[in-house]
Specification:
- The structure holds two protein chains of two kinds.
- By secondary structure, chain A is of the alpha/beta class.
- Chain A contains eleven helices and 13 strands.
- The longest helix of chain A has 16 residues.
- Chain A is elongated.
- Chain B has a four-stranded mixed beta sheet, with helices on both faces.
- The chains are: A alpha/beta, B alpha/beta.
- The interface between A and B is medium-sized, with 28 and 20 residues.
Chain lengths: ~325, ~475
């Protein structure tokens, strides 16, 4: 059983009468990449701040590395906050060394590691430049290096992909993957499902301060119905024919003489059985397309099933 | 402690490792020099004003006027020489230089009489209106004023002063003074007072001695050196105010910049809010110590230079530094600085953490600035009236205590006031720092802003 790095037990936090996080419990195990998903204002940032002891919960208990979050534990954590910036008038290498030293790395070692990481991130040429001369993408790379410079066991990234262009998003995905391969535990929040789907071993879904899902990506995808799109040129009524396999809907007509359908498969139904039923009934199919569900669909489905609406609220 | 040190070090270096910091430090003596030199420069750059006198009395009044001008100029030069002697000692070289160099610059030297050979206003009017010019030493110039003198001492003297210039009244005043003196003197002489008696009367002045009742005999006389501690008390109180005011503004702007650049959240993920607060306060305190050492060194260097420049100058440098380094003033000054700085610094940091721009901060800063300005006036008041009830009461206001009590220290205030105000100030400082820390934490995490603070003081008003 992997070690529990972080555990939130029945944690609640309220600001000015508004509950930002309501009785949330979850844990992060060593070596996992955990995605912390939820719409804006769902309570992700508040939960992460409580995880590090930056905020104190009104109720419940937070345990980081087996004890209450404290200054010692922070040295083992690399946290990239959502609202991030660095000293614009400092040199790139000096910023990295400064944050490394705050995390307990000796000055010489911090400089050596900083230069190595700048090289890995193709930023060695900018080491002696002032931060204010860097592009936004370069500055974000420096922030990420500052987060990772002390080789933390546990990396928390709050909306790490926001503000990055597609190239840099891809680059950050590679960094996250490399850190995970190096044995680090990663928890990152996002509301962009594609990243979570590609990277995460486990996802936590939170909406309006309440946890609504905690499990693997596969489990999350299992929550959303699989769908098949069909197009026919025969007169068969697929609603009646395929009723046993799930919910069939007649969609708007496509080309003349072509009838369009969609089928949300029942939990135990198989797409192959649907195809066989159509063939056996003599349905003239021009399209039979089973569609793999995405985490985005699961996210929307789970949020709506939990009676929540996906809306942007004040950041909590 | 490690993080406090690192934050303080970064904060300190972010100021002192820049050219701008040292240039601004060096600019202080430059501006002080300008402050002294500029009025003299302005004075010396004034154009020479040319005027004509038309004496309709037959020449008597004109002569009286010119004699009066000459006497006034001599008196002014004598006054300056006396003031310089007081300041740098009796140095013949300096006095000679003053006498020769300033004769033309001081007093009425910049008003020069010319004779255009014209005696009627109608002839002089084109010159007064600058429609016509005349040459003086080969340079064309216009007429500043035409002065018509009429009457006599017995019947009354009338002066018509014609000039287009409405702002420069120096010549007009000099004429009034000179003729006033002439009239009074003539009146006394006509009444039978001997000229010698009149001269003797003008030279009369009392001898005033300042004596200390705590001593007697020859030792009772109060010397200039004895006044220095009181002057130093006021000077140090002002210095303390200036330094605290300067450095807390540094804290405010740095904090707003960090908040705007989103650095604070990164910092909060690496260290605790109280470590950030303490580190910043400590770092900027070191900056202010650098300011203090630099300016004190400059003052010492400046005093030494002045002494060397004027060989027999008698600036009481030793007494000044002895008063400054007196443990009775120095230790309380250090203590008041630390507490005052911590109080104001913590408040400014808290305000900075609530604001994203300097404009946001202005609303919150206005009442704080007003509170900070009050001790400036009270210190001035305490210079003359250290035992004034207003000064005594204001000493008990903890945020004013550092400045006012420092200015009162050389006057030996009652022990109860000394202990009481200091205790109250320290307790308040702890409360202020604690409260500022709480606000700083909220502000750093964007859970409070300037509107939150305004809400606290809305006293139940609903928005």
């Amino acid at each position: 059983m992997p070690e529990t790095i972080l555990e939130l037990a029945n944690v609640t936090k309220t600001f000015k009468g508004k509950t930002a996080v309501n009785d949330v419990s979850f844990s992060v195990k060593r070596g996992q990449i955990t995605g912390f998903l939820g719409p804006n204002g769902a309570g992700k940032t508040t939960s992460l701040r409580m995880s590090l002891g930056i905020l104190t919960p009104d109720r419940g208990k937070v345990t980081l590395f087996g004890s209450k979050p404290g200054a010692k534990a922070l040295d083992r954590v690399g946290f990239l906050p959502e609202e991030r910036g660095i000293y614009r008038r400092m040199k790139v290498i000096d910023v990295i060394v400064f944050f490394a030293r705050l995390k307990g790395v000796e000055a010489g070692e911090a400089r050596r590691r900083g230069m190595k990481m700048l090289d890995e991130f193709d930023l060695l040429h900018a080491a002696e430049q002032k931060v204010k001369t860097l592009s936004k993408g370069m500055a974000q790379k420096v922030q990420i290096i500052s987060t990772l410079i002390h080789q933390p066991e546990f990396i928390i990234l709050d909306e790490p992909f926001s503000g990055l262009d597609p190239v840099n998003q891809k680059s950050l995905e590679r960094i996250v993957r490399a850190q995970a391969d190096a044995g680090r535990t990663i928890l990152f929040s996002t509301h962009v499902m594609e990243h979570a789907e590609r990277l995460c071993d486990k996802i936590l879904l939170i909406a309006n301060g309440t946890k609504i899902f905690d499990g693997s990506v596969t489990q999350a995808l299992g929550e959303v119905p699989r769908r098949i799109f069909l197009e026919t040129v025969s007169e068969h009524d697929l609603v009646a024919l395929l009723d046993a396999y799930g919910e069939v809907r007649r969609d708007d007509a496509g080309e003349p003489g072509v009838r369009c359908w969609s089928l949300d498969l029942a939990p135990k139904a198989d797409a192959q059985d649907v195809l066989k039923a159509c063939v056996d009934a003599g349905v003239k199919l021009t399209r039979f397309e089973p569609v793999r569900a995405h985490l985005h669909d699961a996210f929307v489905h789970l949020v709506e099933n939990a009676g929540q609406t996906i809306e942007e609220t004040a950041d909590a | 402690m490690r993080n406090i040190y690192l934050i303080a070090r970064r904060e300190f270096l972010s100021y002192v490792a820049t050219w701008g910091f040292w240039l601004s430090l060096a600019s202080v003596p430059l501006f002080m020099g300008l402050g002294f030199g500029l009025p003299m420069l302005i004075e010396s750059s004034q154009p020479t004003r040319h005027y004509v006198i038309v004496d309709e009395s037959g020449g008597q009044l004109e002569q009286a006027l010119l004699d009066g001008f000459a006497r006034a100029q001599e008196q002014q030069i004598a006054d300056i020489q006396e003031a310089v002697t007081d300041m740098v000692g009796d140095n013949p070289q300096v006095q000679q230089a003053l006498a020769s160099g300033m004769m033309q610059q001081i007093g009425d030297g910049r008003y020069q009489r010319v004779d255009l050979g014209l005696t009627s206003l109608e002839d002089l009017r084109p010159y007064l209106l600058e429609e016509q010019v005349f040459a003086v030493d080969g340079e064309e110039t216009s007429l500043f004023a035409a002065v018509f003198l009429r009457g006599s001492v017995a019947d009354g003297i009338a002066v018509d002063y014609w000039s287009k210039n409405r702002t420069d009244g120096g010549l007009r005043s000099s004429i009034r003074r000179a003729l006033e003196d002439y009239m009074q003197e003539a009146y006394l002489l006509s009444g039978g007072v001997a000229a010698e008696l009149l001269e003797s009367a003008e030279a009369l002045e009392p001898e005033v001695r300042e004596l200390n009742p705590e001593r007697s005999g020859a030792d009772a006389a109060v010397t200039d050196a004895e006044r220095i501690p009181f002057v130093m008390g006021i000077a140090v109180a002002f210095g303390l105010w200036i330094i605290i005011f300067s450095v807390v503004n540094m804290l405010l702007t740095a904090m707003i910049e960090e908040k705007g650049n989103k650095v604070l959240e990164m910092m909060m993920s690496a260290t605790r809010h109280y470590e950030i607060l303490t580190g910043k306060l400590l770092g900027v305190a070191c900056v202010s110590a650098t300011l203090l050492v630099f300016w004190m060194g400059l003052a010492l260097g400046g005093a030494t230079l002045v002494q060397q420049a004027a060989a027999s100058a008698d600036i009481p440098v030793a007494e000044i530094f002895s008063a400054l380094l007196d443990p009775g003033l120095l230790l309380p000054a250090l203590g008041y600085f630390v507490i005052g700085y911590l109080m104001y610094g913590a408040v400014f940091l808290a305000v900075g953490s609530l604001c994203d721009t300097i404009q946001d901060a202005q609303t919150l800063m206005s009442p704080i600035m007003l509170i900070m300005m009050v001790p400036l006036f009270l210190v001035m008041l305490s210079a003359d009236s250290p035992d004034s009830p207003i000064v005594a009461i204001a000493s008990w206001v903890p945020v004013w205590t550092p400045f006012i009590m420092l200015s009162r220290l050389p006057h030996d205030p009652p022990m109860i006031e000394l202990v009481g105000t200091t205790t109250l100030m320290m307790v308040t400082a702890i409360g202020v720092i604690w409260g500022a820390g709480a606000v700083f934490r909220l502000g750093s995490l964007n859970q409070a802003n300037q509107e939150t603070i305004k809400g606290w003081f809305s006293f139940g008003k609903k928005s």
